[in-house]
Amino acid sequence: MSVRLDHGDEALSEIHEINVTPFIDVILVLLIIFMIAAPLATVDISVNLPAANAEQQRPDKPLFLTLKSDLSLMIDNDAVSRAALSAALDRATNGDKQQRVFLRADKTVSYGDLMALMNDLRSAGYLHVALVALEAEKIP
Fold this sequence. Notes:
five-stranded mixed beta sheet; 7 strands
C-alpha cells in the first residue's frame, strides 16, 4: 500500500493503486537478458545441406578433382599429391586456367580441409570451381 504525502491536510489517506514502476524495471531487465542470450543460443546449429536439384550443365569432357576421405587427391582417375596439384592441373587443362574444375569431396571430409583445397586451387590460378553434389530426387 502507498501513502500519498502531497495532501495539504493532516490526515494521510491510503491510495488504492498499484505501483507498477518496480514491475516495469524487472520486465526491462528480463528483456535485456533475453536480447543478449537469444543470439548466443543459436551458435551451435547443425547444418544438414540439401541435395541440389538444379539442371546440370556439364561440358563434354569435365575435369574432376576428387578429395577422398583420407585427404588424398585424384584428378579424373589419376592420383596426385598436394604439392604437385598445380602442375597436374596445368597438364590436364593444357594451361587453360579458365576451364571449370569440378570439385567433389567425400562427405566425411571436414569443411576446413575442403576450404584448404579451394585455396590451393585459387593460388594455382583456377578460379572457376564447381562443387559436385548428388542429384536430388525429382518430385513429379
